[in-house]
Every structure is written in C-alpha cells, then in structure tokens.
C-alpha cells in the first residue's frame, strides 16, 4: 500500500512516496533571503544525501550568467553528478539569482544512467509495476543550424536516448520544451513536433502532456528538452489522457500535446498537468492584459481537471508558475497562500510564454494514494 508524507520548512518543500517496492522523493528548494548560491545547493544535497537517495531528475530555473558558478556549487555539494541537470533561464521573481531547484530522487531502487556523447541524458529505474526513464538537458547536435533543424535533432535525440533505455517515443507520457525566443518560432516548432509525432505513431498511442515555455539555455541552442517515459510491467498500471472541461484539445489549434496525463497503478494515482494558461474552449486567449484574470482562470482550469479524479492543488508534488512580467509574481499570493503548514511545492519564474498576450502559465504534478 502506498503512503505519502510531506515536509515544509523555510526554503524547502518535500513530498515522499513509498510505493511498489521503492521510495520516491520530490523536493522543491527555493533560495532563502540573501542566501549564497552554494548554500542553496548544499541544502538541496543534504535533503537528498541524508536519505541516501539517488537523483533521477534535477531542474534549475535561474540566470544563465550564474550557470558556471551554479554547476561548481552543485558538484561541491553532491560530488559526482551522474544525472542530467536541466538549467534554463528562469529568472527569479524575487531578489535571488535562481528561482529554485526541483529534484526527483528514488531510494531502494537500482538506477542506470543514459549517456549521449558521454553526457548524462537520463536516468532509468524500475518499481514492481513499471519501468521509468527520465530525460533532461537534451539539446541539438548543431546549435548553429536553423531552428527547424534543431527541433528535429532534439526530437531524434529524445528517441535515441529512449532506445538506450529499452523504450520508444510512444512510451513518453510527459515532455518539456524550453524554447529560446519562443514568440519568434513557436508555430514552426509545433510543425516539427507534429510531423515527428505523425511519423512515429504517437497520435495512434498517447500524445504526452507537455510544457512549451520561452527560456534560453547554456548551450545557446534554439531548444532544450526533457521527458518522462513509462513502460508498464503489470496489468495494474494504466495510462490515459485527461481532458479539460474548460478548454479544447491543444491539437485543435496545432499544438501537439495533451492537457494532462493520468497514471494509475495498484495503489497510486499520478496526474501530470501540462503547462496551462488562460485559454478558452475556442482556443483563444481570454483576460488579455488582466494578469489577475489570467491567474484565476488558469487555476480554475487546473482545479477542474483534477477534481473529477478526487484531487486538488493540495495533492501537488511539484509545480512551476511562469510569469511574463516579473512584477506580477506577488499577485499569486492572493490565489495560492504560500504560508502555513500546507504549502504548495512551487517555483515562480520569469519566462516568456508561447503567446504575446499570455501573462501566466502553470504546470503541476499531483499524486494521491488509492
């Protein structure tokens, strides 16, 4: 039987899940006021290493100028880094140089590393019911190529990495695409993704949940990607798309992703909610110029996807809120109080969103025991 516990201390929100023969930790680490970068990474490492967990996913949202220093701090805190580190421009909405760090780690499980060109591209592990592959920091082979070519290269590298893990592109349940200068070429990216998915039979299987957000990366590439793939080992595991009662399918306006994906095992329900914004049933932006309106609608949309599954934001294991305008971030406090004993494990970042009239986007992972 799965069990779940939470910890909330200043600068760290943690969710631990014991299930199917392994234990899984989700950590959201935010800088404390005036905290040096080295101290933030040290706190993150203490939370992981104290429990002898193995990192399988690490994302850092922060200033690219801090990337070299941050990687040194990471290596000093953790030692040998055997997992991909996805560091993308995600300006802090406070005074810190990074918005924060999100980590997934596992205990009581063997973990393998997927290498591409001798660089960690993913981690693979299993529980009693499924095999998992988590990929990150996937960049094109040639960052000087045109953007369409770079997008194709990234998608092909995702497929190659999955193959090394004994999986295929149709096993993917969740993707992240960090797209530099997204407003200049998001339609072209969508064309490349749709074409690739058509070629690989994704539309005949499961179209994954996804976030496509505007963010630069340390390789100066047009695109950086990550993904989660799952291959069931038991008939107790089911995977299905979850629609939004308040929005049309994203494929209706040319964006090839699913609003959310649900994974149910014998004792756990997991829902991966795509990057969600203030878009209506016709695929149009609503509350233009009104960030409060956009935040309110987005939260309503996410809540109404989770509610029929018996879940809510209080079941989140991780979340990221993206703001087009840094100064708007404080408004989220009016909708999601960050104080008290039941805090949302949330990072707030300053990033470009896929439409010029969108001011806010939210992605959420949520888990509940059955």
Can you describe this structure in just a few lines?
With 370 residues, the chain is α+β, with helices and mostly antiparallel strands. The chain folds into 3 domains: 1-109, 2-Layer Sandwich (60s Ribosomal Protein L30, Chain: A); 110-234, RutC-like (60s Ribosomal Protein L30, Chain: A, 2-Layer Sandwich); 269-370, RutC-like (60s Ribosomal Protein L30, Chain: A, 2-Layer Sandwich), CATH 3.30.1330. The chain contains 5 helices and 19 strands.
Question: Can you offer a commentary on this structure?
Answer:
It is a single chain. The protein is of the alpha+beta class and 370 residues long. The protein folds into three domains: 1-109, 60s Ribosomal Protein L30, Chain: A, CATH 3.30.1330; 110-234, 2-Layer Sandwich (60s Ribosomal Protein L30, Chain: A), CATH 3.30.1330.40; 269-370, 60s Ribosomal Protein L30, Chain: A (2-Layer Sandwich), CATH 3.30.1330. It has five helices and 19 strands. It has helices at residues 37-49, 67-78, 147-164, 182-200, 291-306; strands at 3-9, 12-19, 22-29, 54-62, 85-89, 91-92, 98-107, 112-116, 119-126, 130-138, 172-179, 209-214, 223-232, 238-242, 260-264, 268-276, 316-323, 346-350, 360-369. The strands form three sheets. A seven-stranded mixed beta sheet has the order 6-18-17-19-16-15-14, with helices on one face. The protein has a six-stranded mixed beta sheet with strand order 1-2-3-7-4-5, with helices on one face. Strands 8-9-10-13-11-12 form a six-stranded mixed beta sheet, covered by helices on one side. Helix 2 (67-78) links the parallel strand 4 and strand 5. Helix 1 packs parallel to helix 2 and helix 3 (147-164) crosses helix 4 (182-200). The chain is globular, with a radius of gyration of 19 Å.
